[in-house]
Amino acid sequence: MATTTEFIEYVCQQIENTGDIRYRKMFGDYMVYVNDKPILLVCDNTVYVKKLDCLNDFMIDASTNIPYKGAKEHYILDIDNRNFSEKVINILEPITPIPKSKKKKPTK
């Protein structure tokens, strides 16, 4: 089951106070960017965040799962809890780098 447009819009509304929010369809589901930084992975109408040391104590009660085949285990974010979701993003946003743009290889 792929993520619905309604759900990804809801996710963005829940975190709208954390910065400039946009999403991009990738690998069949979505990546949510905050201030051009990839913060949330949304697969099958479930919101995931990377398991990072800075979140271990904060998300100690969170469920975990693998968002797609071949991925590492992620925390599942309770996006319905707006305050908690904003706190998680406020922890991740300063330490997440903006992805470097890939240079296109010249064609022969």
Can you characterise this structure?
The chain is 19% helix and 27% strand. The protein has 108 residues and is an alpha+beta fold. The mean pLDDT is 93.
In short:
The chain contains 2 helices and 6 strands. It is of the alpha+beta class and 108 residues long. The radius of gyration is 14 Å and the shape is globular.
Topology of this structure?
Elements: H1 5-14, E1 21-26, E2 29-34, E3 37-43, E4 46-50, E5 64-65, E6 74-76, H2 82-92
Antiparallel strand pairs: 1-2, 2-3, 3-4, 4-6, 5-6
Helical segment count? 2
Biggest β-sheet strands, sense, barrel: 6 strands, antiparallel
The proportion of residues forming helix, as a percent range, comes to: 10-25%
What percentage of amino acids are in beta strands?
25-35%
SSE sequence, one letter per element:
HEEEEEEH
Low-pLDDT stretches: none
> How many strand elements?
6
Overall shape: globular
| Lateral strand order in the biggest sheet | 1-2-3-4-6-5
| CA-CA gap between termini | 40 Å
- Radius of gyration of CA atoms, rounded to a whole number: 14 Å
Classification by helices and strands = alpha+beta
The average pLDDT is 93
